[in-house]
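thought: user wants a sequence for this fold. calling inverse folding tool.
action: design(structure=
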C-alpha cells in the first residue's frame, strides 16, 4: 500500500473523517471505526510508517509521544484506574489490516491475551 492509498494518511490530511480524541503536531488519536471494547482508540504517527520494521524513520521524540498519547487518551477516557491494553498488530499473523503503524488503546472491560 502506498501512502497515497493509506486510509490513516487520509484521516491525517482530512480526506476521511474520524472521531478525533487527541490531535497534536506529530501524533493523532481517533476512535476505532470497529470498536471492540468500550474504549477503543487508535494512536498513530502522522508520518506514514507501515509497521515496526519502519519505526526507525520516526524521530525518537515521536515514538515516545505515541506511548505518552496512549496514556493521556486512557486517562481522558477514564480507564487508567482499571487498566487498559496497548496493542500493536504487526503483520499478517497478528491481524494487521491497515499498514500505517498504530497503537490500539483498549479498555473498559477485561482484556485477556488472545
Ligand atoms: P489492525 O488490525 O491493527 O490493522 O487494525 C486496524 C483498525 O483500524 C481496525 O480495528 C479498524 C480500524 N479502521 C479501519 N478503517 C478505519 C477507518 O476508516 N476509520 C477508523 N476510525 N478506523 C478504521
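)
observation: tool returned 114 residues.
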Amino acid at each position: 500500500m502506498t501512502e497515497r492509498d493509506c486510509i490513516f494518511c487520509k484521516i491525517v490530511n482530512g480526506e476521511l473523517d474520524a472521531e478525533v480524541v487527541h490531535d497534536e503536531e506529530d501524533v493523532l488519536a481517533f476512535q476505532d471505526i470497529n470498536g471492540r471494547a468500550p474504549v477503543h482508540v487508535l494512536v498513530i504517527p502522522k508520518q506514514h510508517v507501515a509497521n515496526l520494521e519502519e519505526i526507525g524513520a520516526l524521530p525518537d521524540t515521536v515514538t515516545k509521544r505515541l506511548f505518552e498519547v496512549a496514556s493521556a487518551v486512557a486517562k481522558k477516557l477514564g480507564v487508567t484506574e482499571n487498566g487498559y491494553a496497548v496493542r500493536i498488530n504487526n503483520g499478517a499473523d497478528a491481524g494487521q489490516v491497515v499498514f500505517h503503524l498504530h497503537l490500539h488503546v483498549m479498555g473498559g472491560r477485561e482484556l485477556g491475551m488472545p
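thought: summarizing for user.
answer: Here is the designed sequence. Strands lie at 20-23, 27-31, 39-45, 84-87, 103-107.
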